[in-house]
Amino acid sequence: VLVHQLSKGASQNPFRKNKGRVTRVLFHPAKPFFYVATQNHVRVYNLAKQSLAKRLLGGSGSITCLAIHPSGDHVLVGAEDRRLAWYDLDLSDKPYRALRYHTYAVRGAAFHRTYPLFASCADDGTAHVFHGMVYSDLLTNPLLVPLKVLRGHAVTDSAGIMD
């Protein structure tokens, strides 16, 4: 992972010790946090303090995708073990809920920007749409409800929907 600073025309390699292949990197929507997903872990770095803020513990499968809720307090992590893990960053570094609705590896996950919806897609050729209501009250757990399964995509060479 290289970080380029366009104003100075300089590049940095702050993550030289990464173990495993980097699968996804994302920025927090509002705070100076940087998410790096490798095959086994998701690490959250605080860019202001230049330190590791949190390490999310994954499951047994290799991580394939990562999505951040627009509020920035929740993360979706998809893996090859057919699971989509919902993390509440304020609660724990372990998954709040592991959703296992796909029959093959999960390849993509995304949150809707304004509506309480999220989706996942996998190599089985299906895309699952969920209602994911996040409450402003921190004591109330998120409400996760499966809504619809979208079918009709062709699976070619064991690859279904990629994103």
Automatic annotation (TrEMBL):
Q: Name one GO molecular function term.
A: ribonucleoprotein complex binding
Q: Name one GO biological process term.
A: maturation of LSU-rRNA from tricistronic rRNA transcript (SSU-rRNA, 5.8S rRNA, LSU-rRNA)
**Cellular component annotations (GO), alphabetically ordered:** PeBoW complex; preribosome, large subunit precursor
- Gene3D superfamilies cross-referenced by the UniProt entry: YVTN repeat-like/Quinoprotein amine dehydrogenase
Q: Which SMART domains match?
A: WD40
Q: What is this protein called?
A: Block of proliferation 1
User: What species was this sequence derived from?
Assistant: Haematococcus lacustris (Green alga)
